[in-house]
Design a protein that fits this description.
The protein is an alpha/beta fold and 302 residues long. It has eleven helices and nine strands. Helix 8 crosses helix 9 and helix 10 packs parallel to helix 11. It starts with a strand and ends in a 13-residue tail after the last helix. It is an enzyme of class 3 (hydrolase).
């Protein structure tokens, strides 16, 4: 089994509520390494990459600079043959995560990605009223939006639309939906997840994102979960994915050698009274990256 690297994406400047900048540190302090070690993994933590607003012109520039540095960290890990757990950070961190992974695979083939989220995250600067970069990463990875986001490593279109599936969506703007539908990205809205169950939807998504790809990963926004079980996130949306269903689905990642990275974003420890959401994040990580039978969430963090 590959060594598991944990990469801390220390950024909150891409979101309106910047509390998720402290997410990675809080999760490590609450025992993420120990949870994964108990689940059979050999784990090492990488040096954190931290956004620096003092050296940038504006928050778009903050995210662009951060993304380039974070992408280099991911590139080295994937090229080194290691599997990754990326802990955010607001979801703009995905620009760097998956740009780095795509660059590492450039001579081998394409990258597939399952994007679990209550939102589409497919705005561009031209369509976003808030101009919040954490609402733009998926569009950027597909080659749309600011060149500072799309052209990392000098090329655009890190993801092909046919190898991207978005699951759990229940809050979005028309412009985002129009872009993804025009590109042909499969969107599994929460109504379909509620009808079919998350695991069957995830299995369908896995088949799509692995077809013709050298490797694949999962980017999981904490707000994809039901806020009753994971309330500590910046933009919670009611009627989300049940945690037990998410854990069961992520266990489908375990035995696939092409699964290179799990990213978990938008955990805000400043809102996590009692540690309920931290337990959910630990459970997701262990379900997707551990060995053997997934551990119940309540057994992971006291």
């Amino acid at each position: 089994m590959k060594t598991l690297d944990i990469a801390s994406a220390v950024i909150g400047e891409g979101a309106k509520d910047g509390g998720c900048k402290y997410g990675a540190s809080a999760l490590l302090k609450s025992g993420m390494v120990q949870s994964l070690a108990r689940a059979g993994r050999s784990v090492q933590t990488l040096a954190a990459v931290t956004a620096d607003p003092m050296s940038a012109r504006d928050r778009m520039d903050v995210v662009a600079r951060f993304s380039r540095e974070h992408a280099e960290t991911v590139l080295r890990a994937v090229r080194g043959g290691r599997q990754l757990l990326v802990l955010g950070g607001d979801h703009s961190c995905a620009i760097g995560t998956w740009s780095g992974a795509a660059q590492a695979l450039a001579l081998k083939g394409r990258l597939g990605l399952i994007w679990v989220d209550a939102h589409l995250d497919a705005h561009t600067p031209q369509t976003s009223e808030s101009q919040a970069p954490h609402g733009m990463p998926l569009a950027a990875l597909l080659g749309h939006g600011s060149a500072a986001f799309t052209e990392i490593f000098g090329w655009s279109g890190k993801l092909n639309p046919e190898n991207v599936v978005v699951i759990g969506v229940r809050s979005y703007e028309p412009a985002e939906r129009a872009l993804l539908e025009a590109l042909g990205v499969r969107i599994i809205y929460m109504e379909e997840v509620a009808r079919r169950g998350f695991a069957p939807c995830f299995a369908e998504a896995k088949a799509a994102v692995t077809s013709g790809c050298a490797a694949w990963g999962v980017s999981f926004d904490v707000d994809g979960l039901d806020p009753e079980e994971a309330p500590a996130t910046g933009t919670p949306v009611d009627n989300g994915i049940p945690l037990d269903q998410a854990m069961a689905a992520l266990s489908l990642c375990r035995d696939d050698p092409r699964f290179i990275a799990l990213e978990i974003a938008e955990y805000n420890p400043l809102k996590d009274f009692g540690g309920k959401t931290a337990r959910a994040v630990h459970a997701l990580a262990v379900a997707g990256l551990g060995l053997g039978v997934p551990v119940p969430a309540e057994d992971l963090v006291s």
